[in-house]
Amino acid sequence: MPNTIKKILVANRGEIAIRIFRACKDMDIATVAVYSDIDLEALHVRYADEAYLLGEAPPAASYLNIAKIIEVAKRSNTDAIHPGYGFLAENAAFASAVEDAGLIWIGPPASAIAMMGDKVSARKAAASVNVQSVPGTVKPLVKAAEIAEFASEYGWPVALKAAHGGGGRGFRVVKETGEAEAAFEGAGREAQNAFGNPELYLERYLTAPRHVEIQILADGRGNV
Predict the structure, then answer these.
(1) pLDDT of res. 32
(2) How much is the pTM?
(3) How would DSSP label each residue in 202-215?
(4) pLDDT, tens digit, for every residue of 141-179?
(5) Burial bucket for residue 40 (CB in 10 Å: 0-12, 13-18, 19+)
(6) Predicted confidence (pLDDT) at residue 110 exceeds the cutoff of 90
(7) What are φ and ψ of residue 53, in 5° steps?
(8) Phi, psi for residue 134 in degrees, rounded to 5
(9) I need a surface site. Which of 8, 11, 31, 75 has the fewest CB within 10 A?
(10) In angstroms, how far is CA 38 from the centroid of its own chain?
(11) What residues contact 10, with CB distance under 8 A and at least 6 apart?
């Protein structure tokens, strides 16, 4: 089947973008990089066929700027946008904005992202079909005092996590009440900078877990 996508914009940076660019070159698909002013000399900028400045270094002004990314996609005559991972990859509003602009979104549908990209709603979805999970909150935290309240029921340590992202951003292990305030402020600030949303939730921290992960790939035509 011939390619229906001739040009892809990768809304990310660094090795994440380069991996996708390499695959695109193998498939004879043109590539568009975006960058913040601090990444002008970054490898992913030079690796792509075209590159466009998004804005200043803070992610909110560049890699999290949905309107600017869509504008660059249209200006560069891009067919599709790949979000990579991190930044806007788990942002349902971004997926919807890409499709609303008449572009192809390379990723799960916005409805799936809205359900599973938000870790709090993902926990609710799992509970609704009787999937057991580590004890945790099903509402975003409002204040640091909730950390100690949670620990009084489930014990220390607890894991404080960003509700709208992963990869270790906005993650803190809290071992006692005295660490709660600083962890709450630091994790929220990091989550805001990385994902554009400061919301946090709690889980019982497992000190010696076994990590088993399943990844599912679907092509949009019913093949999974």
Answers:
(1) 98
(2) 0.74
(3) EEEPPSS-------
(4) 999 999 999 999 999 999 999 998 778 889 999 999 999
(5) exposed
(6) yes
(7) -75, 130
(8) -60, 140
(9) 75
(10) 21
(11) 16, 17, 20, 21, 31, 32, 33, 34, 44, 48, 81, 82, 83, 84
